[in-house]
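To: structure subgroup
Subject: Chain for Friday's discussion

All,

I'm putting the inputs and outputs inline so they're searchable in the archive.
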Amino acid sequence: MTRFSWHGYEVEVDKTATSAWYAEAEDWGCACGRCRNFLTLARERRLPGEILEILDRLSVPPARATYVCELYHDKNWKEKGLLYQFSWRIGGAVLAVPPGENGPGWGPLIERPWGGLVLGHEDYPYGAPDFPKPNFDLECQIWLPWVLDEPVAGAAE
């Protein structure tokens, strides 16, 4: 196990189990436009550098997120982008959380210039039903630009 400190969170990571699982995993599998937009940005490594650095240290490909969704669709989405929530499952445990509140099993959302980061455990397995235990989730909330050459489904043009 390797210890890391990420913005007040103290974690212990099983890098071997994590990298082995992701080596066999596929990219996030939803084919909706919003998820394909995320995948394009993840494959092009256009996510925040802080997140890419964490993922790189754990040998986790950014496009192999274990959960992706759009949280909020603003009427000015063309200028602001789309507010996403996405996460990656990590083998290991959260040892300590920074001060603040969040839901049961989750630490507080840490605001960063690019969005927010939170660690915790989601019981529903989403894209990682067979992930080794113990584990936790690294979750981000961030506005991402629309980069596909097609309209967002349902958005007024």
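Points worth raising on Friday:
The chain has a mean pLDDT of 91.
The radius of gyration is 15 Å.

D.
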